[in-house]
Description:
Distance between the termini: 34 Å
Number of domains: 1
Low-confidence stretches: none
Shape: globular
CATH superfamily: Hotdog Thioesterase
Number of helices: 5
Number of strands: 8
CATH topology: Thiol Ester Dehydrase, Chain A
Structural class: alpha+beta
Mean pLDDT: 88
Strand order of the largest sheet: 1-2-6-7-8-5
CATH class: Alpha Beta
Helix content: 25-40%
Amino acid sequence: MAEIAPTLEQLRAVVAANPFNSWLQLSVERxxxxxxxxxxxxxxEFIGTQALNRVHGGVISSLIDAGCGYAVLAATxxxxxxxxxxxxxxxxxxxxxxxxxxxxLHQGGRICSAEAFIHDAEGTLLASGRGTFYKARHPHPVxxxxxxxxxxxxxxxEELEIPxx
Length: 165
């Protein structure tokens, strides 16, 4: 159970504050105790195979990572860092809206695992994946203060004990 369960609005604020998510145009569509549903519109910049109009696998893997990571945050209230990520590609993704559904699989003291599934607008399964995540000691700063701030990234790095190069 989450120490501080995020509301849909708080989770949307966390997602929107991330510059990479902004570039993806990632949004939180739905949040429940069992799952999180994210949405991303199709963008020309996602194309990896132009002749076939197919989405680059790196975009797909990034969406799996986001679906898993935000499923952990939604369930625990803590920011996370990816330890391991595995993506299975089931079908080529054509350019268009994609929906990512994430579920927490296991919550340990500091290590969690989650799964995510990507479907196209017609509901066809395109990819699935699993990830292992390192959970910060304290709840995500947005859940404590209610708003993202400039130190948010630094605070999470301190919590995750990420060494600076």
